């Protein structure tokens, strides 16, 4: 039996997180409750298998999210949980937020909807060359139908 190291104990009690921005975007890790956070950073343990394992560091608080144990209920929720999609959307929305989207929030939503429809049309125009990807929501895995 392998002896338990302090790091193993930290990970066993820690909340799992995923990095959605910054240096570790796309990686997973854990909150490190053995060290103290400050106003803008949080202590974490990053899983870096290619670099030799686990790495303790501090990251900006907005660069990670807790990994939800809830299954996505809708197809859209499932797609938004794909790490590359989530990180790209976080990055794009943060760039938009720099322009004070609260000044015209409804129009920003209309513009985003327009861009989403243009992207959908672009993909459909590719025909047989389209690279469609699918994820399954809770509804699809369980045969449930969502009623709005």
From TrEMBL:
This is Uncharacterized protein. It comes from the Eukaryota. It comes from Cylindrotheca closterium.
